[in-house]
């Protein structure tokens, strides 16, 4: 299949060649998408309404970008593994940890892959709320340096004494089908977001404000790290985990303000964020 680097007709984004150009679309969906919303039906938790600490926020800034505030680590690469849920969760925890402590620490997706196995399934997929719950119950998560990523599932390693871990104190879900709620949360911290990414347009996204064809259900996880506007196009900027050769150096801008309750590709239907109390500083 030949993909030219060109704009979609009458659209604000364009497609181009990337690392997925030499595989079929089915191979792409099988190997690089790993969000499994259906796990909530089997797990101990469901996405019932939770406290939303940002409900009463007013006067939002016109733009936010946590990359420039020092709360986002460099783009990572999940490889041929459906571990997007782990990368999304870790990026959100990295963000709130930096906001509270002032320290940006790259954390371990591999620990979630190996140890968070009660309901999540490593390369077989998972969801972010279960990952946050695991980090709480595990009394923290190791750094990426101490527990590096393998691009495959491994054996769970016992907590390494004298090694630094990052803790959180809870997590909350963003109210579903509410763009303003996601913006309120995003104005205060990076947010884990589910998205329907299993389309050819998303596979070969190269740049611009994406508003294209989506798959029919949530199947991938990203981390929203900001929002803004460019040439009259309002967007939310999201960090992906497919390396820097995909999209805009590993990021995608998703169009907002479309009037769709669920948002483009369903981005307002499954968003959540970790909570870290300022009184608990242990990194």
TrEMBL record:
Keyword Transmembrane in annotation: no
Molecular-function GO terms, alphabetical: cysteine-type peptidase activity
Organism listed in the record: Digitaria exilis
Limits of the Peptidase C1A papain C-terminal domain: 60-275
Any one biological process term the GO annotation gives: proteolysis
SMART domains: Pept_C1
Name this protein carries in UniProt: Peptidase C1A papain C-terminal domain-containing protein
Family, as annotated: Belongs to the peptidase C1 family.
Origin superkingdom: Eukaryota
CDD domains tied to this protein: Peptidase_C1A (cd02248)
InterPro entries: Papain-like_cys_pep_sf, Pept_asp_AS, Pept_cys_AS, Pept_his_AS, Peptidase_C1A, Peptidase_C1A_C, Peptidase_C1A_papain-like, Prot_inhib_I29
Keywords: Disulfide bond, Hydrolase, Protease, Signal, Thiol protease
């Amino acid at each position: 299949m030949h993909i030219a680097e060109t704009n979609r007709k009458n659209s604000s984004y364009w497609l181009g060649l990337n690392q997925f150009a030499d595989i079929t679309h089915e191979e792409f969906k099988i190997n690089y998408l790993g969000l499994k919303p259906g796990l909530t039906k089997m797990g101990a938790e469901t996405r019932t309404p939770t406290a939303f600490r940002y409900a009463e926020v007013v006067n939002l800034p016109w733009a936010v970008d946590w990359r420039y505030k020092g709360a986002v680590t460099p783009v990572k690469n999940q490889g041929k593994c459906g571990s997007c849920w782990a990368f999304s969760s870790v990026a959100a925890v990295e963000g709130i940890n930096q906001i509270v402590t002032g320290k940006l620490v790259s954390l371990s997706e591999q620990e979630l892959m190996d140890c968070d196995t009660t309901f999540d399934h490593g390369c077989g997929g998972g969801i972010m709320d279960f990952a946050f719950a695991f980090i709480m119950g595990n009394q923290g998560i190791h750094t990426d340096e101490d527990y590096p990523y393998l691009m495959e599932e491994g054996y769970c390693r016992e907590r390494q004494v004298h090694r630094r871990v990052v803790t959180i104190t809870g997590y909350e879900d963003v109210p579903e089908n509410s763009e303003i709620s996601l913006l309120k949360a995003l104005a205060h911290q990076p947010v884990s977001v589910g998205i329907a990414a299993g389309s050819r347009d998303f596979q070969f996204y190269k740049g611009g404000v994406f508003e294209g064809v989506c798959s029919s259900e949530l199947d991938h996880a990203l981390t929203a790290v900001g929002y803004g506007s460019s040439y009259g196009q309002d967007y939310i900027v999201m960090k992906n985990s497919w390396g820097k050769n995909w999209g805009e150096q590993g990021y995608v801008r998703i169009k907002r303000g479309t009037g769709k309750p669920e948002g483009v590709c369903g981005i307002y239907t499954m968003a959540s964020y970790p909570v870290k109390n300022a009184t608990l500083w242990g990194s």
